[in-house]
Write a structure and sequence with these properties.
The structure is a single chain. The protein is mainly α. 76% of the residues lie in helices and 0% in strands. The longest helix has 30 residues, at 11-40.
Length: 95
C-alpha cells in the first residue's frame, strides 16, 4: 500500500512547512503594502478593500489558504485598517 501523506521529518514535510511560512509572510507583506499605499495615495484604499473582499470570498466559499488562521486574521486586520485609514486620507486629502 502506497502512502499519500508526508512522514514527519521527511523532505516533503519540511518543504510544506517552508511553503506555509513563506505564504504567511507574503500575505502579511502584501497587506502591509496595501496599507502603505492607502496612507500615501488618495483613493488607493480601494486596493485594500478589494483584497479584503477577496479574502472574505475565499472564507465564505470554503477555500483554504495555506496559512495558519492567526495569519489570516492579522492579514484581514491590516487590510481593514488600510481601508479605514485610506478612506480618511481620501476624504481629507482627496478634495
Amino acid at each position: 500500500m502506497e502512502r499519500t501523506g508526508a512522514r514527519n521529518g521527511s523532505f516533503e514535510s519540511y518543504m510544506r512547512r517552508v511553503f506555509v511560512v513563506l505564504n504567511s509572510v507574503l500575505l502579511i507583506l502584501v497587506a502591509g503594502a496595501f496599507l502603505g499605499l492607502a496612507l500615501v495615495i488618495p483613493f488607493a484604499f480601494v486596493l485594500s478593500t478589494m483584497a479584503l473582499m477577496v479574502l472574505l470570498v475565499f472564507f465564505l466559499a470554503g477555500i483554504r489558504l495555506p496559512a495558519p488562521n492567526w495569519v489570516l486574521g492579522v492579514t484581514a486586520a491590516i487590510l481593514l485598517a488600510g481601508t479605514a485609514a485610506g478612506f480618511v486620507v481620501s476624504v481629507f486629502l482627496g478634495q
